[in-house]
Amino acid sequence: MRIFYTLLMLVSLNLSGQTLQTFHSFKVKDIHSDSISLSSFAGKKLLVVNTASFCGYTYQFAKLQKLDSVYQNYGFRVIGFPCNDFGGQDPYADSTIETFCTNQYAITFPMMSKISIRIGDTSDVYKWLQRKKLNGVSNAQVMWNFNKFLIDEQGHWKRHFLSPTEPSDTAITHWITSSVTGNLPLVKHNSGTLLFKNPVDHQLYLDNLDEGREPSRISLISVEGKVVKSWIYQNGIDHIEESVANLANGIYTMEVIRGNQAERHRIMISK
Q: Is 83 among the catalytic positions?
């Protein structure tokens, strides 16, 4: 699969016949000064953000970490680029920045070495992010810390958000989950087989539900851990069909409890 995305990167052409670079075209140094090719992120959706340790938006580190943790298993990562250009709010060396991020926010998403965006020699990555003639999509000037760029699985520029946009904004989370696909799984459920459609559109459908005499409780849980829908059925129910039309598109956990036994399955609502 990685070879496929690399080939796409190499053959991406603009209208003039010149090869357009993608995000995957660049090599950078990570926060430990090790060289890293951004092509190593091929096949993943990315949120790229310029960070600072002493900014009014520094609190977004916690939300960025949560976003990365929740959606990492669904082919998504956050990548941070520390920068001191805006208000001088990240003045220290990479090792100090790493310690701050670890101790204050338990950051586990990839952090790169500190770069320049506006002052001095602008990072090649950020030249590409900001200039339409390089990314082939849009001009987008970074004016402050915690600007956010969305990059698709092929390394193409998709969207730019200014500092006030929260990492949890639905425009971001819906984009992350927009191409998550499922199938029609056959999942063992106690002594039998539970059938359910995945992705789900407006109706949640489960079959082969009645395998015993205990009542069943079925719940849908958001990525934030909140139960957003719950149904209780008495014994004798073989299948159910319930509306989820009022729920937002996205990824949910479906919890099925029968007696003292429980199982959970990831589903996606995509209307």
A: no
2-177, superfamily in CATH?
Answer: Glutaredoxin (3.40.30.10)
| 163-193 confidence digits (pLDDT tens) | 999 998 888 988 887 765 443 333 333 434 5
pTM of the model: 0.67
- Does residue 220 come out as left (phi exceeding 0), alpha (psi in the -120 to 50 range) or beta? beta
Q: Taking Cα atoms as reference points, which of 14, 3, 51 lies closest to residue 157?
A: 14
Both tokens assigned to 265: 């399955």
Q: State the catalytic residue, choosing from 9, 55, 79, 111.
A: 55
The CATH code that applies to domain 186-269 is 2.60.40.3080
- Give the start-to-end residue ranges of the domains of the chain: 2-177, 186-269
